[in-house]
């Protein structure tokens, strides 16, 4: 439970001056599935209560949708009956239960020596160093957690923090990229076509709101290389087979190769910004200006880092479970 609580705290709002002013303890109220601090085999069910809400801040959004948010699409789909308070079903708050599930599964995977870590690779054009795609290890993950924001290079982190403050001061927001590594996954997870490891991870990743892209290994960069440069040659030390480079990001044909699985996700700038924006009054069918209220993150990226780890854990665990089931 302590490990799970620590993991949840990495996502919780109001923990740093970079995040929304909304303060939530994100304490878990466990209803079933746990006995004497251990999973007992019954379905695990827990509640995370919202304690710091200002629901009225959202009333106007049913009529005047926020650009970049889901108010318009949800309004059309649910004919205006959608829960608008706090963003409802489209709130970043929904990543709290994802982190509960992922935080538990990360511990199950760690017992199998499969470790997952992530860091901010870029915010507002400021880059952190990337994971070493061949030698990334659990120590690198632990080092990242010692910094005030999850980065490898603290200087880059300080510049990122300054860029978030600058965006916030000008009533705006910034986005960025999160890099994730999964180490220790055995060869053979994932299946061809629709259940490939890329498919499984991507499908889980897009459960996190505000994620707009994903690339594996060297990703879009591979398009600029010759095959001879991009292919990772196989080697053996007599015991195991590995690759010297890892452009393929640990997945070949949708199946894990035993090399670290590396992927990066694009996170858009927070849609709710305090700058005046153009929108439409749906009741009047007129163009209008929108000034939003409420408390929002000027940058989603730092809080999304544990969410990425959580859903990656769920995707890997499912694949591991499938492999054990069929082998
Ligand atoms: C941890 C986290 C926190 C978020 N906080 C906010 C927020 O404060 N304000 C906001 O407008 N969007 C926030 N979002 C993003 C919106 O939920 C998201 O942009 C919206 O639902 C539209 O979905 P889409 O961006 O995936 O298309 C957050 C997302 C995450 C993952």
Supply Rg: 21 Å
- The portion of residues forming beta strands comes to 15-25%
Shape assignment:
globular
How do the helices and strands follow one another from N- to C-terminus? HEEEEHHEEHHEHEHEEEEEEEH
How many DSSP-defined strands?
Answer: 15
Class of secondary structure makeup: alpha+beta
Low-confidence stretches: none
**What's the average pLDDT?**
93
How much helix, percentage-wise, in residues? 25-40%
Ends distance:
32 Å
- Ligands: flavin mononucleotide
Helix count from the secondary structure assignment: 8
Strand line-up in the sheet with most strands: 6-5-7-13-8
| Quaternary organisation of the protein chains | single chain
Strand count, sense and closure of the main sheet?
5 strands, antiparallel
Commentary on this structure:
It is a single chain. The protein is of the alpha+beta class and 327 residues long. It starts with a helix and ends with a helix. The protein has helices at residues 2-11, 71-77, 95-111, 138-144, 154-169, 197-205, 227-230, 301-326, and strands at residues 28-32, 34-35, 38-39, 45-48, 115-123, 126-127, 176-183, 211-216, 234-236, 241-243, 251-252, 255-256, 261-267, 277-281, 286-290. The chain binds flavin mononucleotide. Flavin mononucleotide binds next to α8.
